[in-house]
Design brief:
This protein is of the alpha/beta class. A 7-stranded mixed beta sheet has the order 3-2-1-4-7-6-8, with helices on both faces. Strands 5-9 form a two-stranded antiparallel sheet.
Length: about 475
């Protein structure tokens, strides 16, 4: 029998709230307190530290010429997308010497990887392709194999996702930034194709992390890695043992180990490449679950060994996607059922009141920091702003599931985001409509406390907003592939 995960914990807590609401009250109070802390950290990102940092050289920097080794880990990727990524490397201007290693791991269909192998042969000796079977650790395992096969002359490893087309000056900018500051790694922001069209609001929501958390972490010398457009000192990467196979967000976990080992990194707020947004709601949800679960797993080992200011900003980055909506929703539903049956009426009334307040805290934590930052930094177009808010609400559930799964040690294995438009699905899944139905049912309970009624509305809200987000993703796919 497998150990419990977030869904089983949800139903268990709902049953506890219905049968013994008094025992569920401490659980929801604890969830509220933790959510308040998460909200405070999220609000602080972008508004707290104002100290200037210094660019003292790293003790590991040398004066040798830079030599980049670009690593692409691919699995079941559409060949046309990977081809565009590779051809963008051939357009680099004023770049240091570089090589490109494409590591295809565990792709069963030769029709997917053989065209990429042929393209690498055609592009010249700087492009090397490897197809490997039996690779463990998903992307991290593939990147470790690429690291082992890196040219001995390479000074830095560059990580680029398979769907990212870099700008012609990417490597030149990376070299300038490394030489200017002597940092051991630099991280550029993620950006997306078509972000001025149907995807504008979606990309705006995703960019919120870089607009607030990354900029704030940079001031505190606490920037982590985010998986693509990362440039890392090869000696530093090898010194900390390469990529971990134990985390589904191997990028953030590596960033934490680099900081613990005394290496320094920096966020360079300049767009140097664009990738694809998730193509459907399931992909967007899977991505958000992975970020919440993997980073929360890493966050459990943050404390100790780092300066307090660095620890605070690292923890804020790792919990940027976390929320505790799940226990609040479970106790609201269970407590509401007990209240409707007249079971432990006073305890049930208190429980649903606290649960409703807990969901209000979740929404404040999720929305308020982003809204303030967007308004302060330029007031985006109203329509795009609304799409961003809808997407953020639609992602509350997968983020909540990822958070609870990680706390229970059940964050699972790495799953890639689908990039093949023919595989896109518009399914929403059963949990969002089920929560919306429960929210509607709660509103029919006589004499439901106002806080509980508000919580019921908030619990139902992600479903219609998920449908709106799905429509934007359909429009995005149509814009990418009009045929």
């Amino acid at each position: 029998m497998s150990p419990p995960d977030g869904r089983s914990a949800f139903f268990g807590l709902m049953a506890l709230a219905m049968l013994l609401p008094t025992l569920a009250i401490p659980v929801v109070v604890l969830a509220m307190l933790v959510q308040a802390v998460l909200g405070a950290l999220n609000l602080h990102a972008g508004f707290g530290l104002k100290r200037r940092r210094t660019d003292a050289p790293s003790r590991f920097v040398t004066h040798q010429r830079l030599h980049f080794s670009l690593h692409l880990a691919i699995h079941d990727e559409p060949p046309a997308i990977v081809a565009r990524t590779l051809r963008a490397f051939t357009l680099q201007v004023e770049a240091p010497e570089f090589e490109v290693i494409v590591l295809d791991n565990n792709t069963a269909d030769p029709a997917l990887w053989r065209p990429i192998a042929a393209l690498c042969d055609a592009l010249g000796p700087a492009f090397r392709f490897y197809h490997e079977e039996g690779v463990t650790g998903a992307k991290a395992g593939a990147l470790n194999i690429a690291l082992a096969r890196t040219n001995p002359a390479a000074t830095h490893v560059v990580i680029v996702d398979a769907d990212y087309e870099v700008t012609p000056d990417f490597l030149a900018i990376a070299a300038q930034e490394l030489q200017r500051s002597g940092d051991d790694f630099v991280q550029f922001p993620q950006a997306y194709h078509g972000d001025a069209g149907p995807a504008q609001g979606l990309s705006l929501e995703l960019a919120d992390y870089f607009l607030r958390h990354a900029r704030q972490a940079n001031l505190a010398r606490a920037m982590l890695l985010t998986g693509t457009l990362s440039v890392i000192s090869r000696p530093a990467l090898e010194a900390v043992g390469g990529w971990s196979l134990r985390s589904i967000t191997e990028d953030a976990e590596l960033g934490l180990r680099l900081h613990r080992a005394g290496y320094r990194g920096r966020f360079v707020d300049r767009i140097v490449g664009r990738g694809l947004l998730p193509l459907d709601l399931g992909g967007l949800s899977l991505q958000r679950y992975r970020w919440a679960a993997g980073n929360m797993d890493t966050a459990r080992g943050v404390f100790g060994g780092l300066p307090a200011r660095t620890t605070l900003q690292v923890f804020a980055q790792l919990t940027a996607w976390a929320n505790l909506a799940l226990p609040c929703a479970a106790t609201l539903i269970g407590g509401g059922a007990a209240l409707s049956l007249g079971h432990h009426a006073e305890a049930s009334r208190l429980l649903v009141t606290l649960s409703g307040i807990g969901l209000v805290l979740v929404y404040l934590s999720v929305f308020l920091p982003m809204v303030i930052a967007m308004v302060v930094r330029g007031r985006p177009p109203f329509k795009a702003f609304g799409v961003a808010l809808a997407a953020r609400a639609a992602m509350i559930l997968p983020s909540a599931l990822g958070t609870v799964d990680a706390l229970m040690g059940r964050s699972g294995s790495f799953q890639r985001t689908e990039k093949d438009i023919t595989q896109a699905s518009d399914a929403v899944g059963p949990m969002l409509p089920a929560l919306a139905l429960c929210g509607g049912a709660l509103l029919t309970i006589a004499h439901l406390p106002a806080a509980a009624a508000l919580g019921a509305v908030l619990m139902a809200l992600p479903y219609p907003l998920a449908l709106a987000t799905r429509r934007r993703l359909i429009a995005y796919r149509s814009a990418l592939h009009p045929a």
